[in-house]
Amino acid sequence: MPARKNAIWRLLSVLLAFSLLAAACGGDDDDDDGAEPNTTEAVETPATDGVAQTIAPTDPPETGPVAGGTLRIGTEAEVDGVNPTTSALSAPGLWMGITVFDTLTVYLPDGSVAPYLAESIEPSEDLKSWTLKVREGISFHDGSPLNADALIANFESQIGAPLVGLAVRPFYEDQSVEGATPAIEKVDEFTVKWNLLDPDANFPASLTGQLGMVASPTWLADSAAADGGLDQAPVGTGPFKFESREQDSVTRFVRNDDWWGIGVVQDDIYLDAVEFYPLTDTEQRLDQLLNDDLEIIHTTVSSAVSELEDRSASGEVQAQFDDSTEESFAMINSSVPPFDDIRARQALTFATPRDAYNEIIAENVNRPANGPFTLDSPYYNPDVVQEADDPDRAAPLVDEYCAERGTETNPITEGPTCTDGKINIELQWSGPSIVQDRIAELLRDDGWSEFFNVDFDELFQDEHIQQTALGQYNVNTWRQFGAPDPSRDKVWLMCRTAEGISLNWPRFCDEARDALIVEADSGVSEERFIELQQEIAKSMNEAYTYIFFNHTIWAYGYSNSVQNVCGMTGVNDEQLRCNENGRQQVRHMWLAEG
């Protein structure tokens, strides 16, 4: 790693111990240790034609509820803790999170949002304030009461966190300014009010994910006093309580006999315990499922997706598939040379071997993506086409760029922007991963190397994400977008999140696009909302900061012993969304043999 990067890393090492609240992945959909720190999401993208989300299990439960047993889940990666205000909650972390914490709101299968830990949530007339009342009589696992003070403690921890706060602070008035409207206010013992910077008709969807997980305020304070030392032992209100954790081996949660949802959302909790095993090797995860050493796995690796399809068709396992959630792409940092020049971004786009990527890496299992929406989404813009595989258009752009700016310095490589008529760049990805290595080599050898001198930088996932947030990259591979309500993806796109330590990873500011995003949140008609999302997708395409490869398929494999796979209901006995971006609730499941 260049000396400049090391200096920055040392300078920010304390800050970067905190998590990114991101629906993103340091890597690609076929990365064996990929994971996607996730934020909040709303209205569901419609099901797809090929690999569609399945809302119900393939077969109904073979038995009635059976008490007992331990459900073993194999996840794609480990996480650095399970603190919703500070930890890097990727898909595995979010899965652990919804096991021990309850969220304030939840998704229904049609993409609408319903109160859950909240009893009610109502907007002001201008949609800039939202008032939420939590259910009374609920306690955290440590006996602390769930009340307005607990909600305020959680929010203040999130908004004050160096990196998690990046997803929160831009959407409220600057609290350091005297006279600023408080971001959150206590109304009464069980009620709070959020005061937003802009109208947000879809704010309740923001509480279905990490921002909506409510942790014990006592535990939050104790963990902060211990410099995050208790982040490995989460305390929530959820159906399972933390029992033990061995980093990189297993995390165990046990049944919460005092869970508020017993008799409210379901008759009982049937499992004795849930164990999470981080297994970055996809084949190992799949083998352990087939050998009955695990009951559930998730994956985005194309070969494993295909095998789960075959195995479920033959009745060996149960499986579900969903490609409506995330996209896989190369992402370009537009803030520094050479890619602060659109000609360099266009040249890289035209030189990208996208067809080879989808054939060789994705094995033609995933549907190619033209942007953040699937072909059958109402937000899909048919006029937006992902350009690639067009090297003839790249050549003159590279010639022009190198002639005009070839002696400038690329701050990432610390060398000139051009050498011998080619643009010098660095490709960064998360590893170690055999698949990611293959992706890097394919992008370089089958397309980019004709016009670009490409250095490689493989980093552990947490450092890869942190370097991306700092803007310390030229181009990388990534997995993101696909929020059920696309308005929830605004945190990755707006000018207000593009500076400093950034969540607008390409660091591209387009005020016209910001105006579209703000209008989409203002309570417009459904027809206008669709038009706005299509215009936003067009602006993303024209900026040349993303090179979309395909739509990620999240596949879930279940042992045939797992019953009631998608039978989760809410407080009004409504069916809830089964799974989302690599995780799902398990509190309603049971094992046929107990």
Whole-angstrom Rg: 23 Å
Structural class: alpha+beta
Ranges where pLDDT stays below 50 over 5 or more residues in a row are 1-26, 28-58
Give the C-level CATH assignment of the largest domain.
Answer: Alpha Beta
Helix share, percent: 10-25%
How many individual β-strands? 24
Q: Estimate what percentage of residues fall within beta strands.
A: 15-25%
Q: Using the 3D structure, state the CATH architecture of the largest domain.
A: 3-Layer(aba) Sandwich
Task: Give the distance, in angstroms, between the N- and C-terminal Cα atoms.
Answer: 51 Å
CATH level 4 superfamily of the largest domain: Periplasmic binding protein-like II
Q: How does the major sheet shape up?
A: 7 strands, mixed
User: Overall pLDDT, averaged?
Assistant: 90
Provide key terms for this protein:
594 residues, alpha+beta, Dipeptide-binding Protein, domain 3, 2 domains, 7-stranded mixed β-sheet, 19% strand
Describe the structure.
- The chain is of the alpha+beta class.
- The chain folds into two domains: 3-15 and 327-551, Dipeptide-binding Protein, domain 3 (Roll); 33-323 and 554-591, Periplasmic binding protein-like II (D-Maltodextrin-Binding Protein, domain 2, 3-Layer(aba) Sandwich).
- 24% of the residues lie in helices and 19% in strands.
- The protein has 13 helices and 24 strands.
- The chain has helices spanning 3-11, 91-100, 148-160, 217-225, 282-290, 302-313, 342-351, 354-361, 391-405, 434-445, 461-470, 511-520, 526-543, and strands at residues 24-25, 70-75, 105-107, 113-115, 118-123, 129-134, 184-188, 191-195, 240-246, 250-255, 273-278, 296-299, 318-322, 327-332, 409-410, 415-416, 418-419, 422-430, 452-459, 475-480, 546-551, 554-558, 562-563, 590-591.
- The strands form six sheets. Strands 1, 14, 17, 18, 19, 20 and 21 form a seven-stranded mixed sheet that branches. A seven-stranded mixed sheet has the order 9-10-11-2-12-22-13, with helices on both faces. A four-stranded antiparallel sheet has the order 5-6-8-7, with helices on one face.
- Helix 8 packs antiparallel against helix 10 (434-445).
- The relative contact order is 0.20.
- Residues 1-26 and 28-58 have low confidence and may be disordered.
